[in-house]
Amino acid sequence: MQDGWISANPACNLPPGAGYYYYRYYSRSRRTKVNQFETLCVHYSTSIMTMESKNKTNKYFRRHIAIPSDHGAWVFLLSPLLIGIFAAGNWTSASTLVIIAALAAFLLRQPLTIAVKAYSGRRSRGDLSAAWFWMIIYGLVIAAVLVFLTLDGFGYLFWLGIPGAIVFIWYLWLVSKRSERRQMVMDILASGSMALAAPAALWTSLGNAHPDGWWLWLLTWLQSAASIVYAFMRLEQRNLTHLGGLSTRLRQGRQALLLSSFNLAFLAAFSSSGKLPALLYLPFGLQWLETIWGTMRPAIGIQPVRIGMRQLAVSTLFTILFIVVWTAK
Fold first, then answer.
1. Are residues 94 and 228 in the same domain?
2. Pairwise CA distance, residues 137 & 148, whole Å
3. Where on the phi/psi map is residue 301: left (φ > 0), alpha (ψ -120 to 50), or beta?
4. Structural domain count, the chain
5. Tens of pLDDT along 189-205?
6. How far apart are CA 104 and CA 108, in angstroms?
7. Nearest CA to 79 among 293, 258, 271, 227?
8. Do 198 and 295 fall within a single domain?
9. What is residue 233's DSSP assignment?
10. What angle, rounded to 10 degrees, do the helices at 254-272 and 212-237 form?
């Protein structure tokens, strides 16, 4: 009888069987049962409506789809942007637009990657709605910024995005083949495309395509490449079972040592000729010393998060030193 009353009550949408469970659980007077049932009914209905509302919202606003999960990659974009802006010593509305476009292009990578994984069977197709939502949002932002920059006379900046688009298409192809991990060459090329944010920020801040923009692009790319090669070396060291001899450690760190040493020698040569600030070897010397330290002290058993945080600190110090030296020339 209680079951029938519950099912017929229009104020409640409890599923079949809920009335029986309620009747067994509340076995006091009829008046108490009815009052408690009505309270349960209202609470249940409110919870269902709240959950449905949250599910509709969460269908699109999913953090892991909207924002990249590899937080260490942010430095390869933010460092060139900051260097370009501070090197110009000026700020314009076009500078703001470049920052917005660069951030939107960087964020666009995440939903695009999720979509490719979903279409290739690596993720649930239930993620496609959110992925498409954020792809459209970021795409519209980029398109709007390009229109405004073109109207301001910076339409030539569009060409800076072509190398990044080519590298990104390659990356998405690797994602579809489940081969995007541990691709050092691709990471270096991707950092080179992100380093183009430095000339873009410089040119929009100055109002013209000053040749120093190409120097900033090359120098920030060299640092990013050295940082990536060094990070790969540190991650490989985690698999070591014991500390090898000096010759073994030098062999394992050969690539990182050669690249950071090349960067330092390159800076010394052009700084002495007067084409670059005389003290610009200082920020690059920081990465060189870090590489020597990491080669001599392998990261055996160290968590990847600690490796990434240390390299993030080195890259942050590099950015600060670079800005100080460049603006003081």
1. no
2. 17
3. left
4. 3
5. 999 999 999 999 999 99
6. 6
7. 227
8. no
9. H
10. 160
**What's the length of the chain?**
329
Q: Is the same domain home to 239 and 195?
A: no
pTM for the whole thing?
A: 0.78
Residues 253 and 135 in one domain: no
Rounded distance between C-alpha atoms, residue 329 and residue 321, angstroms: 13
Residue located via tokens 């944010």: 197
What is the rounded distance in angstroms from the CA atom of residue 277 to the CA atom of residue 328?
8
User: Which tokens go with 86?
Assistant: 């501070």
Q: Where in 90-144 does DSSP place strands (E)?
A: none
- Work out whether the CA dihedral 295, 298, 304, 310 comes out positive or negative: negative
| Mean pLDDT for the chain overall | 83
End position of a domain, from candidates 10, 29, 58: 58
Q: Quote the CA–CA distance of 142 and 108 in Å, as a whole number.
A: 10
* pLDDT for 49: 45
Q: Sign of torsion, CA 131 189 320 156? A: negative
Q: In the predicted model, is pLDDT for residue 33 greater than 90?
A: no
The per-residue pLDDT for range 108-132, each reduced to its tens digit, is 999 999 999 999 888 888 889 999 9
Assigned token pair, 166: 């080519």
**Alpha-carbon span 288 to 292, nearest angstrom:** 6
Q: Encode pLDDT of 254-309 as tens digits.
A: 999 999 999 999 998 898 888 899 899 999 999 999 999 999 999 998 898 899 89
